[in-house]
Amino acid sequence: MAAPGRVMGEKSLKKKGLEEEAREYWRLSEYDERVQDQSHWLGSARWDRGRWLAYGDFHRDLILRFLREHAPADYVGRLREMAVLDWGCGGGANLRALCGIFGRAAGVDVSEATISQCEKQLRLLGCENFTTLCFPADRPEKVLERLGPASFDFVFSAAVFQHFPSKDYSFRVLEVMEQLMKPGACGLIQVRYDDGSDKLRQKESDYAKNVIYMTSFKAGEFAGQLKKAGFTLLASPRDLDNPEDRHEYSFFRKGLAVSSVHADPFPGESRGRRGER
After folding, report:
1. Which terminus has fewer CB within 10 Å in the chain: N or C?
2. Which of 72-76, 229-233, 244-248 is least confident?
3. What is the pTM of this model?
4. Distances (CA, A) of 10 to 7, 13, 164, 172
5. Which of 130, 134, 52, 135 is nearest to 94 (CA)?
6. Burial class (CB in 10 A: 0-12, 13-18, 19+), 143
7. Is 118 in contact with 95 (CB distance < 8 Å)?
8. Cβ contacts of 159 within 8 Å, gap of 6 or more
9. DSSP string, 121-140
10. What architecture is the 7-254 domain classified under in CATH?
11. Residue 224 near residue 252, CB atoms below 8 Å
12. CB 130 within 8 A of CB 122
């Protein structure tokens, strides 16, 4: 039987290898149309102008609904004074929408080509209140070094955590987010939930093959990561977009202690269908 230290070392090397695979994969966006599509480039395969704009508008409206339901009474009225972070901004569909409701917006991504595409589209649309940052996929802590602690009032991420190389990596990103956020700041993150199928099980190898369904969370797993990172989960409804995508939306606040979590803050409403990465 292998010694415990050796087993742990092998697991660490495997995770590091997947992070490097992820870094190389998203670099392909410079010329690979499939990766550009997965990164939500305007004009790529699925992303005609109408769908691209609607995707961002969907998440903008969802953010506002969560804020009205769960944030302090005066929060929404102060959004134009606040700064928002879009982790995994891709081609800018969501960042464009965030620029319209927050005073300042920052988008971070792991691909230089995708960041350039994001900047291009937002400038063409007249957005001026944004900045971008490209960071190494295997070093998410660089975002904190560059942007600084307690810089954001809200953090957002959609169609990103499902592509992370491991759940450990997911937690690393949450730890960085916690430090980037101001006390009392809010956030909304979309993840895939594990429905027990082989497609949604956690993948442990071959990042390029499994990128679309790389990381999914069993019931309570992501809530546990949020709590461990220093957040209070306020709501975690599922299937607010396309039920076949198995999306769970976690709305949380930094450092706030509450007694209950609302599984579905919008009961009885129909679920739409939206594109994803």
Report:
1. N
2. 72-76
3. 0.89
4. 5, 5, 19, 19
5. 52
6. buried
7. yes
8. 40, 88, 90, 190, 276, 277
9. HHHHTT--SEEEEE--TT-T
10. 3-Layer(aba) Sandwich (3.40)
11. no
12. yes
C-alpha dihedral sign at 231, 98, 262, 224: negative
Handedness of CA 40, 43, 46, 50 (dihedral sign): positive
pLDDT by residue (tens digit) across 159-180?
999 999 999 999 999 999 999 9
Strands 152-157 and 181-192: parallel
pLDDT for the residue 7: 37
Q: What is the C-alpha separation between 215 and 201, in angstroms, rounded?
A: 7
| Residue 86, token pair as written in the block | 């879009």
- Per the structure block, which two tokens stand in for 43? 């004009």
| Residue 115, pLDDT above cutoff 60 | yes
DSSP per-residue string spanning 207-272: HHHHGGGS--B-TTHHHHHHHHHTEEEEE--B-SS-GGG-EEEEEEEET---S--BS-SSTTPPP-
* Block residue for tokens 């009474």: 73
Q: Which tokens hold the place of 227? A: 């709590």
Residues 181 and 186: their CA atoms lie apart, in Å, by: 8
pLDDT tens-digit readout, 212-225: 999 999 999 999 99
Instruction: Give me the residue spans of the domains in the chain.
Output: 7-254
Query: Can you give the pLDDT at residue 5?
Result: 43
